[in-house]
Amino acid sequence: MKTALRVLKWATGILLVLVTAVVIYVYANAGRTYEAPFPNIVASQDSSIIARGRYLVYGPAHCSGCHVPEAEHDRLDRGEHVALTGGNAFELPMGTLYTANITPDKDVGIGRYSDGQIARALRYGVRHDGKALLDFMPYYDLSVEDMTALISFLRSQEPVNKPVPESEWNFLGKALIAFELIKPMGDGDVPATIPRDSTAEYGKYIARSVANCVGCHTNRDMMTGGFTSPDFSGQFVMDVEDANGDAKYIVSPNLTPDPATGRITDWTQSQFISRFRAGDIIAGSPMPWPAFGRMSDMELAALYKYLSQLEPVVAEIEIPVGLIDEPPSSD
Q1: Strand 237-241 relative to strand 89-92: parallel, antiparallel, unpaired?
Q2: Cβ neighbours, 10 Å, residue 2
Q3: Pick from 172, 166, 27: nearest CA to 93
């Protein structure tokens, strides 16, 4: 009995030492920073370039969905170009994160940063202070042309002096940073420009680099953000609210052309485009229908062609249509 107690005390002591070491390591490295180059992007005052940037922000890149305050989303959905003052809170397992004010205010907005600093954040996921950004803005592969247009538009806005709280990382978030599970993602290997036409190649650019369809239509681990299913196979379960504010769930559909589980397998190109024109049919859906609905028929045709030629993937979990009361099981 005494031997067992000594072993238990020894094991407990070792465990406490290990836990203490982990805690010390996490707090010592929670401010981890990274080096990344500053892209050679210079904002333009050319009206056509600014117009392209505005289109991306309020259209397929849907930056406005996160950087316009939720209270202003009704105006945004009506097509108004509401100020991108941020402040929306995301309650996540790793803490509470707030979207930034990306108007060119010099005190609280992006007016504090150079074009290169803004471009580095978008291209590599590295903040102005060298810290890694959470993978919420996967615009790493935007062409040089589109990155220039986007930053040119952001610079052209009216500045709005509306402070935003600092994001609050809990211990889990600090651990993810310390152990580099949150880290820069972009590699800087991007095209100078992409021909805008109705080809599947341009559809791929929209789906992966601009609209980030792959981000929601692929299952992922909410602790690390990493994908856990084949690209575009859906199955990502998201917490949402219905029209009454009640907690519900929605499962992103499989966009691959699998005959049994692919949501759009039997759709024609015309039906695909019509669905985007119909807008938000399911109240509470996180799909930014108003923003995506601003895409042209040519762009939607390109997107349809790209999705139609993907390798079919069988979805492993049930993908119901609409909001559901309980998350589906993979059993």
Answers
A1: unpaired
A2: 6
A3: 172
Residues 169 and 52 grouped into a single domain: yes
**What CA–CA distance (Å, rounded) separates 313 from 258?**
6
Sequence-ordered alpha helix ranges (H) in 183-254: 200-205, 213-216
Alpha-carbon distances, residue 276 vs 89, 259, 261, 293 (angstroms): 28, 22, 20, 5
Half-sphere exposure for 329 (CA within 13 Å, toward CB): 1
Q: Is residue 282 part of a domain?
A: yes
Beta bridge partners of 92: 95
Domain count of the chain?
A: 2
Quick check: is 326 in a domain? no
Using the structure block, give the residue that is written with the tokens 């681990």. 221
CATH number at residue 224: 1.10.760
One-letter amino acid of 52: R
Q: pLDDT tens digits, residue range 259-289?
A: 999 999 999 999 999 999 999 898 889 999 9
Is the same domain home to 111 and 216?
no
Q: Please, what is the average pLDDT of the chain?
A: 93
pLDDT value of residue 137: 87
Domain of residue 217 covers 200-308
Question: Does residue 218 lie within any of the structural domains?
Answer: yes
On whether both 166 and 232 belong to a single domain, the answer is no
pLDDT digits (tens, 9 = 90+) for 175-208: 999 999 889 988 989 999 999 999 999 999 999 9
Both tokens of 9, joined, read 């005390």
Q: Supply 300's token pair.
A: 């939607």
